[in-house]
Write a structure and sequence with these properties.
Blueprint: E1 2-8, H1 15-18, H2 30-35, H3 45-48, E2 54-57, H4 69-77, E3 81-84, H5 89-98, E4 102-104, H6 106-111, E5 117-121, E6 126-129, E7 134-136, H7 142-150, H8 153-163
Parallel strand pairs: 1-2, 2-3, 3-4
Antiparallel strand pairs: 1-5, 5-6, 6-7
């Protein structure tokens, strides 16, 4: 379960807006990557985001290229989850691989605003707003929870291999 402040965006937030393409092959340091997140959409984001914050967005979040930095950079910036009306499939997978929860909850998106505080319960499949409104979403399977708890797919696989 996580609780955080919302940064809200609209539909079709693409990977070039999340992590500008001009940095794709030049920026590899996690802190520098975090400093460029969303800079072409919201200049206040990189300086104002705090560990535990949550992004809420409209449909087709993460459309565009397959660059992994679009998910990794949000995690490096301290974002603990992304809630959207829908995700581009490759972004959804990249987020989970990076250990960044991606939750599909379209009804909740319409209800929350930037600055609101929300709580996500991944096992129960519930998003709760500060006013107590609860929005259901599909609970995350045990395997996905394991990937998220391990910090991403690679640490999860290493942990599983070490157990065998």
């Amino acid at each position: 379960m996580i609780k955080g402040k919302v940064w809200k965006y609209g539909d079709d937030v693409n990977t070039d807006v999340l992590f500008p393409g001009r940095y794709t092959y030049t920026v590899t340091d996690p802190q520098e990557m975090a400093s460029h997140m969303l800079e072409d959409l919201d200049r206040a984001f990189a300086k104002g985001v705090k560990p535990g914050d949550i992004i809420v967005a409209g449909k087709n979040f993460g459309c565009g290229s397959s660059r992994e930095q679009a998910a990794l950079g949000l995690k490096y910036a301290g974002v603990t989850a992304v809630v959207a009306a829908s995700f581009a499939r490759i972004y959804f997978r990249n987020a989970l691989n990076a250990g960044l929860p991606a939750v599909v909850a379209p009804e909740a998106v319409a209800h929350v605003a930037s600055g609101d505080e929300i709580t996500l319960d991944f096992e129960a499949g519930e998003l709760t707003t500060a006013d107590g409104t609860v929005f259901p979403f599909p609970p995350l399977p045990a395997e996905v929870l394991g990937i998220l708890e391990a910090g991403g797919l690679v640490p999860y696989v290493r942990k599983e291999l070490a157990r065998k």
